């Protein structure tokens, strides 16, 4: 499997993949592909990676800058991440996340947040911390990964694409 940056030819396949991966998921509102399109249109996809297996895109992950208390802090949000349903539970997501985290660290990122299953994301070092808040979701599903000694606290806001703005 190859992990590489997306290219313009990948966009239709990425849209299909994200839609298929989130179809029927209880936590999904079906807007994940539109979020990625809006991030791309705004130039806000810091990292947009695909996993390619035998020439077919089987996974996708995005990283974009976040704000804490409306301040730019060189922290990133992981997501959405999507893996083709027939390729799930085969390590595709793990490889995408690890590659993405390595790449944002190389950009001097100070940390990363994720909204997701704590049992899954803890393997990458993500931890729940009540000092960082994301309104409207149970605290245990919002996690942080510090790349240094940051003791940031406050309210996290993702790019406006996540809010349909």
Low-confidence sequence ranges: none
Q: Architecture, according to CATH?
A: 3-Layer(aba) Sandwich
Report the CATH superfamily.
Gcn5-related N-acetyltransferase (GNAT)
Structural class: alpha+beta
Terminal residue distance = 35 Å
CATH topological fold name: Aminopeptidase
InterPro entries: Acyl_CoA_acyltransferase, Bact_Acetyltransf, GNAT_dom
EC number: 2.3.1.-
Pfam family, one: Acetyltransf_7
Protein name: Acetyltransferase
Notes on the protein architecture:
This protein is α+β, with helices and mostly antiparallel strands. It has a single domain, classed as Gcn5-related N-acetyltransferase (GNAT) (Aminopeptidase), CATH 3.40.630. It has helices at residues 11-22, 32-41, 92-106, 118-121, and strands spanning 2-5, 47-53, 56-68, 71-83, 111-115, 127-128, 132-133, 142-146, 154-157. Strands 1, 2, 3, 4, 5, 6, 7, 8 and 9 form a nine-stranded mixed β-sheet that branches. α1 (11-22) packs antiparallel against α2. The protein is globular, with a radius of gyration of 15 Å. The model has no long low-confidence stretch (mean pLDDT 94). Residues 1-146 form the N-acetyltransferase domain. Keywords: Acyltransferase, Transferase. It comes from Pararhizobium capsulatum DSM 1112.
Topology:
Elements: E1 2-5, H1 11-22, H2 32-41, E2 47-53, E3 56-68, E4 71-83, H3 92-106, E5 111-115, H4 118-121, E6 127-128, E7 132-133, E8 142-146, E9 154-157
Parallel strand pairs: 4-5, 7-9
Antiparallel strand pairs: 1-2, 2-3, 3-4, 3-9, 5-8, 6-8
Helix pairs in contact: 1-2
Protein traits:
165 residues, alpha+beta, 9-stranded mixed beta sheet, 4 helices, 9 strands, globular, acyltransferase, Acetyltransferase, transferase
């Amino acid at each position: 499997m190859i992990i590489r940056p997306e290219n313009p030819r990948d966009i239709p396949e990425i849209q299909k993949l994200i839609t298929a991966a989130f179809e029927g998921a209880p936590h999904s509102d079906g807007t994940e592909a539109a979020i990625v399109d809006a991030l791309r249109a705004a130039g806000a996809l810091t990292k947009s990676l695909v996993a390619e297996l035998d020439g077919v895109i089987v996974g996708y992950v995005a990283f974009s800058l976040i704000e804490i208390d409306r301040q730019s802090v060189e922290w990133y949000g992981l997501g959405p991440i999507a893996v083709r349903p027939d390729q799930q539970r085969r390590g595709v997501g793990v490889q995408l996340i690890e590659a993405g985290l390595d790449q944002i660290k190389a950009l001097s990122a100070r940390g990363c947040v994720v909204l997701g299953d704590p049992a899954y994301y803890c393997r990458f070092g993500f931890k729940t911390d009540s000092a960082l808040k994301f309104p409207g979701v149970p605290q245990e599903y919002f996690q942080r990964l510090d790349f240094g000694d940051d003791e940031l606290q406050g309210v996290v806001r993702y790019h406006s694409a996540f809010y349909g703005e």
